[in-house]
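Ops channel
N.P.: pipeline sanity check, posting one input/output pair.
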């Protein structure tokens, strides 16, 4: 086995800086970091002519080196490489799939060497000088076979999670109809009439590291992603700051982001479970339903996550040019809510709780599969004199 600098394993081509004046409705899509991470699926297109090496084809390896550090196999159509992304061209003797896994390990190491106060990034010199283990080509392919099988199990687990998640809106539409047309004619009332209060938290200066068991934390805005609650997205509250127990997140809370990007503002999430000691930031509201015998919080969460209702929620947001849209408490209270009979809401929530129980089991299985993959990845690329000395199979 040989240790090689990343710069010796491949050519890393940086993308072009496309200006808004380059954008249009025709031409090739510009591949940006959000198109890789899934935080934004919309593309900007351009007819601008660029060098041939900035054209990305399906299957190309791409590395985002700013804001998000990760490596991707491009699964989209032909496009153009945006700045802050490297296209990776492996050199002879380097298996592209092996390099994909090697880059994952290297980027994990480089996460501690980022620069910049606002947008974290890796310096090209640090990146290209990072060393990775490179065994002979047959051994590279053996390792790829092992890791790809483990990764395939993770992928299947995540696909199962996705299919289970798709049951939720399908069940809602089947029982209540699409709120865009309200085909069953449910009475519509203002959300504010069902709320006793809307809580908002605080955002003190916190530590970026993950908390230990007994530490308090403050949620980040990313804790509400994809209509799900992710408590792992948090910052640690300093010991000298006393927690405000009035904004502690509890099981059964219904949360909604008051400020975010134009696409994500008003994202709602239901807290099915919590480890405790998590606090609301000032960018997230908690909706407190006044009469739980008229409006079920789980029904309300499902309603708020549907595309038609998301359009109405985003329309409530306001903000000046260049700032993130914001929804005030008073405007949120004006949202129209369809109110089916409470017994029908109860039947729906009972079925949904069964689905969420299945999803919880799937999350556990996915976590175990991911942990197995991560352990294999670390084992393959941990410093050693000979990969052959390990018993990987």
């Amino acid at each position: 086995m040989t240790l090689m600098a990343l710069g010796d394993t491949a050519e890393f081509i940086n993308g072009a800086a496309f200006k808004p004046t380059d954008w249009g409705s025709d031409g090739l899509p510009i591949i940006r970091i959000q198109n890789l991470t899934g935080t934004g699926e919309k593309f900007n297109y351009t007819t601008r002519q660029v060098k041939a090496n900035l054209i990305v084809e399906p299957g190309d390896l791409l590395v985002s080196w700013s804001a998000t550090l990760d490596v991707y196999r491009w699964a989209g159509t032909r496009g153009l490489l945006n700045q802050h992304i490297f296209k990776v061209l492996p050199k002879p003797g380097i298996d592209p799939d092996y390099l994909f896994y090697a880059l994952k390990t290297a980027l994990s190491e480089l996460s501690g060497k980022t620069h910049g106060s606002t947008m974290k990034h890796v310096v090209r010199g640090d990146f290209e000088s990072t060393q990775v283990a490179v065994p002979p080509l047959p051994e590279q392919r053996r390792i790829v076979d092992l890791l790809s099988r483990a990764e395939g199990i993770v992928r299947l687990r995540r696909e199962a999670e996705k299919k289970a998640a798709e049951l939720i809106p399908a069940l809602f539409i089947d029982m209540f109809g699409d709120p865009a047309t309200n085909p069953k004619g449910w009475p519509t009332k203002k959300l504010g009439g069902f709320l006793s209060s809307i809580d908002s938290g605080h955002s003190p200066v916190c530590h970026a590291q993950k908390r230990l068991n007994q530490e308090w934390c403050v949620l980040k805005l990313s804790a509400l992603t994809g209509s799900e609650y992710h408590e792992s997205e948090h910052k640690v509250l300093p010991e000298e700051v006393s927690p405000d127990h009035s904004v502690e997140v509890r099981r059964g809370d219904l949360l909604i982001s008051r400020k975010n990007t134009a696409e994500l503002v008003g994202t709602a999430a239901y807290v099915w479970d919590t480890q405790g000691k998590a606090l609301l930031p000032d960018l997230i509201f908690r909706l407190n339903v006044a009469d739980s015998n008229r409006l079920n919080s789980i029904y309300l969460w499902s309603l708020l996550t549907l595309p038609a209702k998301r359009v109405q929620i985003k329309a409530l947001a306001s903000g000046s040019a260049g700032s993130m849209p914001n929804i005030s408490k008073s405007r949120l209270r004006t949202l129209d809510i369809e109110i089916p009979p409470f017994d029908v809401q109860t039947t729906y929530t009972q079925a949904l709780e069964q689905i969420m129980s299945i999803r919880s089991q799937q999350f556990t299985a996915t976590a175990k599969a991911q942990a197995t993959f991560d352990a294999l990845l670390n084992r393959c690329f941990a410093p050693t004199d000979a990969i052959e000395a390990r018993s990987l199979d």
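N.P.: looks fine end to end. The longest strand covers residues 61-66.
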